[in-house]
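Task: sequence in, structure out. Protein: Zinc-dependent alcohol dehydrogenase family protein.
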Amino acid sequence: MKALVYDGPGRRSWTDHAEPELTSPTDAIVRVDAVTICGTDLHILKGDVPEVERGRILGHEAVGTIVETGSAVTTVKSGDKVLVSCISACGRCEYCRSAAYGQCLGGGGWILGHTTDGVQAEYARVPFADTSTYVLPSGVSDESALMLADIVPTSYEVGVRNGGVKPGDTVVVVGAGPIGLAAITNAQLFAPSTIIVVDKEPARLDAAKSFGADVMVQPGDAAAAVAEASGGLGADVAIEAVGVPETFELCTKLVRPGGHVANVGVHGAPATLHLEELWIKNITITTGLVDTSSTPMLLRMLAAGRLETSRFITHRFGLDEMDEAYDVFAHPQDSNALKVALFRS
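Result:
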């Protein structure tokens, strides 16, 4: 089969690779029907995630068809169309029993495309298939479900839910990439009074407007926009959706006393925490890896037509166009790409 293989910082290849095999009774083999690329994959290629070894198949977001299951798998079977979650869950450890699947102690957590081979391939081995895949409801397309593998539950859980967005809030989202746009979508479920989006790229600010943001500004204008929207108080919730020091530090400047900074971005370098300014302001700062505990709820909303996810996808490719898809996704300033999707032909 073909797979996207990491060859060390700055190097990748769409190349021949051995097909996966069952290695545990709880595994399933999935034929990948649709897959996407994540900003985290770009962080890996930059060398920001040193745990990823050379030779690793990347990717942790896919929709596919079960072709084989281990003897202990009971909830999915050959022929089922499933969403493959970015988080694997053993289902038995202390964290899994409290739905904190991202912190799984039993061999799960974020492992696909990280510490085990991922899903940017024609076939993939999915560990803990009973608790790490979700059968697609009738009428839900591969393309729509694909966005629920990572960005939609991540922005919901780590951004909006952890941030405590509530009706009437002033919410600022720093970064209008896919995660930031998903945060806009999810924040609207809680009826904030104003959603302000900050980004340097005009095309991404235009995208933020189309996703329902009320105010779109460049970073240099962010403080004035937040002050105007909040009566000078600052944002109730600031969601960091980039993963660089400047954007995190900007969130801490935009949040009001008693407010909440919800960091969603994946950071590859230290950021300065200005406690000399923040200690007196009663600020709450949260970080997090998605648990995907919200995925069943989000799938129900998708099936009911209460959630629109296809609009995240701006570019579509065949699986064998993986290199081109990476180039497009990695240069959004040239391509205006939000999310790319690749499909089995």
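The first strand starts at residue 2 and ends at 6.
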